[in-house]
Write a structure and sequence with these properties.
By secondary structure, the protein is an alpha+beta fold. Helices cover 45% and strands 22% of the residues. The protein has nine helices and twelve strands. Helix 8 packs antiparallel against helix 9. The longest helix is centred in the middle third of the chain and has 52 residues.
């Protein structure tokens, strides 16, 4: 039977010294007084120290004393006595006339029988490049955050100025209406005022959600309330019924939907309910989406579709609705609501189109 023959302590110590000296990683072998007993060539080369100045010198006295840190000394002494171990101790090395380095130190006690003077091995890793990269990433992230905040402030200021400008334009239009002698001119200015107010309502509603999808139910509900408040002299005469599901849309598409609803509401107020009517006016706005697409319906209980007239040309509102529908890849259908008029807009999902 063969038995394992242990390596003699003298030979074991010699092997340990040889391993430290030849290591490609910066290594030091220290005794219990923290005096350097062996050093790798890589340690001497990386930190600009000669082997003669390192061997036999206290670790804390290496160079110009830049390794002498009270906390590090306490940790090394505790490790040499077997009471602790140093795992990833981060240390900033500052040397005169040389760039600062960020180091990570690891130290562990060694068990050499009959050679108690040699107590611990110390490994030194330079992580300066990694720390610089992390700092650069953080700095860039901070710059990006600051840029985003600056753009948000500018956007808020822009929204505020746009809102003020729209209010000024609307006020000027209404002043001009009162001065006009021509009924046709007054009508055109009133139409312009209504459209400016509709854009102001859209701008106000969407300013707080310019970066996120817009929930259509509260959006269209608030929009219709704003239309009723700004365009109806007698709010008790008109009722808006809004029936919208839980759909959401991107900001740009929701703007188009809001403008369509506004134009159709203006058209209904202008044509479906002639001045002097005693009926209770109602405008219904319905939006529903399915996997196959979505449908928007705006209907009223007014006087209904006009009689066919070959010379009647579509008005500005009709052209606006058609253009917006084209942007949304939707088709427009106008039908009799009995009583009133129904305008239905249908968008078919791309995958479901024939």
């Amino acid at each position: 039977m063969e038995f394992f023959t242990p390596i003699h302590p003298e030979r074991s110590a010699s092997l340990g010294l040889a391993l430290v000296v030849s290591s490609i990683m910066p290594l030091l072998l220290l005794d219990d007084q923290l005096v350097v007993r062996a050093a790798s060539d890589s340690f001497c080369n990386v930190y600009g120290l000669s082997r003669e100045s390192v061997i036999g010198t206290s670790f804390l006295a290496l160079g110009n004393g830049e390794w002498n840190k009270p906390q590090l000394q306490s940790l090394l002494e505790a490790t040499a006595r077997g009471f602790a171990a140093i795992d990833a101790y981060e240390f900033e090395l500052k040397r005169i006339g040389m760039p600062d380095r960020v180091l990570v130190l690891n130290a562990h006690a060694l068990d050499y029988a009959n050679h108690d003077a040699i107590r611990l091995v110390l490994a030194v890793s330079d992580i300066t490049a990694m720390r610089d990269a992390q700092t650069m990433v953080r700095t860039q992230a901070d710059r990006n955050d600051a840029l985003v905040r600056e753009k948000q402030v500018m956007l808020q200021e822009l929204n505020h100025r746009v809102a003020n400008s729209l209010q000024i334009i609307a006020s000027i239009l209404m002043q001009r209406v009162s001065r006009m002698q021509s009924e046709e001119a007054r009508t055109h200015l009133q139409d312009a005022h209504h459209r400016v107010m509709s854009v102001a309502s859209l701008q106000r509603l969407l300013a707080s959600s310019a970066k996120v999808d817009v929930a259509l139910r509260p959006y269209l509900t608030d929009l219709c309330a704003s239309i009723g408040a700004s365009m109806i002299a007698d709010p008790g005469r008109l009722t808006f019924n809004v029936d919208v599901d839980d759909s959401v849309m991107s900001p740009d598409r929701s703007v188009s939907v809001g403008l369509i609803v506004t134009e159709l509401a203006i058209n209904a107020l202008k044509h479906a309910f002639p001045d002097g009517t005693q009926q209770k006016c109602r405008i219904d706005v319905v939006f529903a989406a399915e996997p196959s697409g979505w449908t928007l319906t705006v209907s009223d209980n007014g006087c209904g579709l006009p009689a066919e007239d070959a010379q009647t040309r579509p008005g500005l509102g009709t052209g606006i609705v058609k253009a917006l529908a084209d942007q949304l890849a939707a088709t427009v259908q106008v039908s009799d609501n009995v009583p009133g008029t129904r305008v239905t807009m249908v968008h078919v999902a791309a995958g479901d189109q024939a």
